[in-house]
TrEMBL record:
Residues 17-473 form the Aldehyde dehydrogenase domain. It is an enzyme of class 1 (oxidoreductase). The keyword Oxidoreductase applies. GO terms for molecular function: lactaldehyde dehydrogenase (NAD+) activity. This is 3-sulfolactaldehyde dehydrogenase. Keywords: Oxidoreductase. Part of the sulfo-TAL (or sulfo-SFT) pathway, a D-sulfoquinovose degradation pathway that produces sulfolactate (SL). Catalyzes the oxidation of 3-sulfolactaldehyde (SLA) to sulfolactate (SL). Belongs to the aldehyde dehydrogenase family. Its EC number is 1.2.1.97. It holds the Pfam family Aldedh. It catalyses: (2S)-3-sulfolactaldehyde + NAD(+) + H2O = (2S)-3-sulfolactate + NADH + 2 H(+).
Amino acid sequence: MRTKVSAHKMFLAGNWIGKEETIAVHDPQDHSIISTVPKASAEDMLLAVEEAKAGAEIASSMPVHERMAILNRAAQYIEDRQEQYAITIAREGSKTIREARKEVKRCIETLRISAEEARRIHGETIPFDQMKGSEERVGYYYRFPIGIVGAITPFNDPLNLVAHKVGPALASGNAIIVKPATATPLSALLLAEAFEEAGLPKKVLSVITGNGSEIGDSLVTHRDVRMISFTGGLEAGKKIARKAGLKKISMELGSNSPVIVLKDADLQEAAESIVSGAFCAAGQNCIGVQRVYIEQETFEAFSSLLIQQVNQCKTGNKMAESTDVGPMINEKEAMRVESWVNEAVSKGAGLLAGGKRNGAFYSPTVLTDVPDDCTIAKKEIFGPVVLLYPIDHLGEAIERSNDVNYGLQAGIFTKDLNKAFAAIRHLNVGGIMVNDSSDYRIDGMPFGGVKGSGLGREGVRFAIQEMTEPKVVCFKLNQSWQPNSI
């Protein structure tokens, strides 16, 4: 019996638009087609930008209370349909149904934080009389929206990462055009549906589906798009930066996150946390654990605990409540991870667990003794593989953690406050989790990295700062009057 395939339309400036040419959306678990979406052209994207120019005027004129109300209504719409949203996330992507439900809850939280932060876009008074000759001047600055934001989002968090761009953009009075990942566009379209039902005026939001190679440049290079917010890979980020021209750029470009386990750590807690951080979403997580540096005295004991935890992970049907690890986004990506692991093993790495592929599924894998010249030791794996390294002391762990072109988040497990603060000071990353894995984030914190991990910060309040500009206002007063003359 064949499953009926539904066709979706894209959301162009507040209108649902179909196209003759479509793109199939596959369930990576069995490669079945679950839907189709329009294959937009460069002309469609240019039209979205033209409409967004009017949308930016509408958005900037909306009073704050209206922005807040729309964001809260959209959050409520999603909350009332949580299971529908979770099933969509799980079907089109790699997440298990349990992981998908968590993402829906985070999306709701992101939109509600955006509503709250809309009321906190403040300016400050400026003491102009700090400069001699400016005694008759008073003034302030306030923040104004930049206009049109172009957002390009990845497949691994197809709802909440879109919300992290749309929520702050709308809270700060901007129009926004979203180009979702080609593999996972349905969740972004469901988010657009929530905003339509919440009463967002037309032209303020577009979600344009299509191939990035065909429509991406029209968004990135357009002079009226004043900011590009991109989440994705380092090489794609470099290309966007070269093409974007004179506009704001905010980029989160992934990592190969380190976690340090010192000999005084709670090893059981560390093992459980690292397994979760390394293998959730089948390892396709920008802050997922990739490298673990363990003090030599506890290396064997910790490795044993970690392998016990890994062997308890259940890989399989992502819609089953008991499944821990689902498929990767497609078989090609699973084959890439397989080739990187095989290269490392061929060069002398030890395979402690996993290392097996079945279609798009790749089993949770643990490697040791990985030579530094292996691809998997230098690049972001973005798959369910973790590398273990013994170290002699904290200084070595910090040095090796920093010896890559990434710096998004890191973790350290220790009971020694001085050592924790040494790591905090010297690890060259955007965030440090103490007694937790690198894979921890709340939607209200600043999120981003250094070096090849990106530019700028997300997290609602901090994204709003990126999506607004300060405008200075100065009054020159006539001080010739006397108090008794008024």
